[in-house]
């Protein structure tokens, strides 16, 4: 029987392969969730297309002929080619992207702690764009123009079209030092230690806390001995780990670099006379963006 190309019912391939692999129409119907009668009808239609016999009936069921097995092999190849196109579409799928704007703390800390990775990784490609010392207007324009999707910093842009969320607050500060530092045997440093040892300072628009010392109930600003400045938190922690410098950081960051990242550092309490201002952290995004804010407050 001559069948025009556009008239061939490709569902017959699935049914034929199921019968060959199952051994009879009954098991094939269960596998495909159709009736045995529908299977038999499909086999009859397929047999009418070919001049050679597809099956021999035996006591064990339907046994494919040599030509039938060759046809099954060809059909299976067709099915594999089709299945491969599904895999190819997944490999080449270009998911939408979320670009985070902020300092290296955003990349190293907030991506780990505040973003629901399972949800985002499944839906989006995640990018980070470092922004340090940019003006408020520049940051607002980056959000409004789509250069970035979420900005994480201390001073959110003041713009009607930008919504702002408080995502974290740094309240407690500690001193970190390397485990080879003489101070590592202590649990708390003194004011003398604070002023004697050189400090590694993280200097970024993310945060740079001012040290306030209270002595005899009179507060005054004091000068620390600065031995290293960097806008890279990783650079600061590396210096602290390998030298005798110390660094004052929020407890959350100190714990993250010690216990999660595995840095060889000691966390020490600060002198009772030293206090730091509370530092809020905000996430800002364009109101018209279709990206859900997947940040949780700390």
From TrEMBL:
It comes from the Bacteria. It comes from Citrobacter braakii. Residues 8-65 form the HTH lysR-type domain. Coiled coil: none annotated. Belongs to the LysR transcriptional regulatory family. Keywords: DNA-binding, Transcription, Transcription regulation. Pfam families: HTH_1. This is HTH lysR-type domain-containing protein. One of its GO terms (molecular function) is DNA binding.
